[in-house]
Amino acid sequence: MRHIALVGMMGSGKSETGRRLALVFGRRFVDCDELVAAGAGCPIPEIFESEGEAGFRRRESEILAEVLASTEPSVLATGGGVVTVAANRALLAGAVVCWLRVRPEVLATRLGDSSGRPLLAGAEGDEALMARLRKLTVERDRWYDEVADVVLDTDELSARQAASALATRLSHLGGWMTGEGDVEDGGGERERGGTGGEHGTGPARIRVGLGKRSYDVLVGPGVRHLLARSLAAALPAVPRRVAVVTGDGIGVEVDLGETVGAVETFTIAAGERSKSLATVEDLCRRFARFGLTRGDAVVAVGGGLVTDVAGFAAAVYHRGVPVIFVPTTLLGQIDAAIGGKTGVNLPEGKNLVGAFWQPSLVLCDTEVLATLPAAEYRSGLGEMAKYHFLGGADSGAGDAAAMAELPLEQRIARCVTLKAEIVASDERESGRRMLLNYGHTLAHALEIAGGFGLRHGEAVAVGLVYAAEVAQRLGRIDGDRVAEHRQVVSAYGLPVSLPAGTEAGELIDLFGRDKKAVGDLTLVLDGPRGPEPVRGVDRVVLAEALEAIR
Ligand SMILES: NC(=O)c1ccc[n+]([C@@H]2O[C@H](COP(=O)([O-])OP(=O)(O)OC[C@H]3O[C@@H](n4cnc5c(N)ncnc54)[C@H](O)[C@@H]3O)[C@@H](O)[C@H]2O)c1
After folding, report:
1. Long-range CB contacts for residues 347-350, cutoff 8 Å, separation at least 24
2. What pLDDT score was predicted for residue 307?
3. Which of 77, 193, 327, 439 has an alpha carbon within 20 to 30 A of 384's alpha carbon?
């Protein structure tokens, strides 16, 4: 895996952006200037004073070589002048380089004065500072341009926004994470421009940053064919045996080529009845007869049912075998296969037995959705509608309209990015992960009340509009935002109203039984900072909002 190096002028925000980007990708962050100062035992201006710029550059080159030689991939912020040395530019060719480009006028306002910046020393006063910055910019831009794989204009971006934009851009560059070929390998051009830049045409690669349990999610047409060649990078060792678990009637084949010694396919019956401990026992016994060990791997090919069951079997067999997911439903690709929740149902309730067991790789092949029955596709759309209202690091409230404009693949990648970011910040659902429950309180109540013939996604769709109506009554959002909820949900052809015959009292009683609704009446509700859990919502408000969606 390649290091991600940020280059750009002093004041372009490399350190702060780098720190945030490292969090997103679950990597360590390295500030080269800090390492140079620590190595010299004095601040950088003093190195310039005692050893001159040449001495500083020598130290900087040594640190850069050391950091880039490390096998632990990092996000590194380089010094502004690092590109002026040819040897450094050659070293940077091995990294994915992002140039944070800023106009000198903006730099001048950010830097304020020249203190602590040896190369600006003596440039007292606004005009002198501007002239020096312009000169340095002209000198260095061609070098930044030479080394950069991604160019991001950050004049109007905070570090948080820059990190978020870079994370999205980097996710769309093929091949770079594993170090297979050049960053253009995915078929895309070098990425340029501001936050709204075009994406390459290769698969999107999204990192779920969970430290040692981090993994990649690839989204795009045909990505299931990358399985064989991704094994080595995704797993601790290339397995001798692979157990492929799939479902009856799914019909999606994966090819492991010559990479592993033995492959056997295990099929489970379709339908929630198969999501049981009996199926897990049966699978584990068949794994044992196949000779599967902890050094091998399970590959689950199917919808949420298959990935939940096979993921749980992988979590418990031999106390944990690596698992790779190839989700074949829309719901699987944007939800079930990401985040490591695995499990089965009991007669007493859904998903009551399970484990957090993160996959080692997820391949969301958009081609396989072509054979998905329309009703299953529609069910996934309800979850997709939910993501319109969840923002990433850049905006807690999401940009519903912007997401609607994305083509399907990019929309799936956006949903995965949002889920990955939320999971990375709260793997075990002790807080923020609860946001993924947006729209689900009413949905679960409708499903439990039963008899309405609603699919899960349809119930979530109605639940989203309901949550907006409740939020408006609490003064958290205005009528336009409620209308936006209705608009997004209807644009997917999903219902915005309660099915006929629903009884408000029964539904509200069921809200309290929702195992994710902490305490009696806690709902995830939209607000100025986006959706968040709200405790103790008044029963009268809940009833009024139900009437508003009849
Ligand atoms: N682990 C999680 O975080 C999580 C999140 C959401 C849902 N889930 C679970 O996911 C399950 C629902 O998953 P689902 O909606 O993907 O349904 P599913 O897995 O039951 O699949 C639905 C149907 O589609 C068929 N199918 C799947 N892929 C196909 C394809 N490409 N072409 C043709 N047919 C195909 C299946 O055979 C099945 O009949 C539930 O059990 C739910 O609890 C888990």
Report:
1. 349/515, 350/272
2. 98
3. 193
Ligand 1 atom 41: the closest Cα is on which residue?
A: 305
Would you say the CB of residue 351 lies under 6 angstroms from ligand 1? yes
Beta-bridge partners for 525: 532
DSSP assignment letter at 152: E
End-to-end CA distance of the chain: 53
Binding site membership of 355 for ligand 1 (Cβ less than 6 Å): no
Q: Is the CB of 378 under 6 A from ligand 1?
A: no
What's the CA-to-centroid distance between 345 and ligand 1, angstroms? Answer: 14
Q: Ligand 1 atom 9: the closest Cα is on which residue?
A: 304
The ligand 1 atom nearest the CA atom of 380 = 15
Same fold, 4-200 and 205-372: yes
Q: Whose CA is nearest to atom 21 of ligand 1?
A: 303
The answer, yes or no, to whether any atom of ligand 1 lies below 6 A from the CB of 341, is yes
528, exposed or middle or buried, with CB in 10 Å at 0-12, 13-18, 19+?
A: exposed
Q: Greatest CA span in the chain, whole angstroms?
A: 83
Contact 462, 490 (CB under 8 A): no
**What pairing do the DSSP bridges indicate for beta strands 74-77 and 4-7?**
parallel
Residue to substitute in 280, 376, 447 for testing ligand 1 pocket (most ligand atoms within 8 angstroms of CB): 376
Question: Which one is the CATH code of 4-200: 3.30.160.40, 2.60.410.10, 3.40.50.300, 2.60.120.1600?
Answer: 3.40.50.300
pLDDT, position 191: 40
Provide the residue count of the chain. 550
Strands (E), 138-234: 150-153, 204-208, 215-220
Q: Nearest 5°: CA angle at 390, between 462 and 362?
A: 100
- What does the pLDDT read at residue 189? 33
Q: Class assignment of domain 205-372? A: alpha beta
Running along the chain, 550 residues long, what does each successive block of 10 average in pLDDT? 92 91 83 95 92 94 95 92 93 93 85 69 73 84 88 85 80 51 34 34 87 94 92 89 97 90 96 96 98 96 98 98 97 98 92 96 94 91 96 76 86 95 93 93 91 89 98 97 96 94 92 60 91 92 96
CATH of domain 426-548: 1.20.1090.10
Which atom of ligand 1 lies closest to the CA of 343? 1
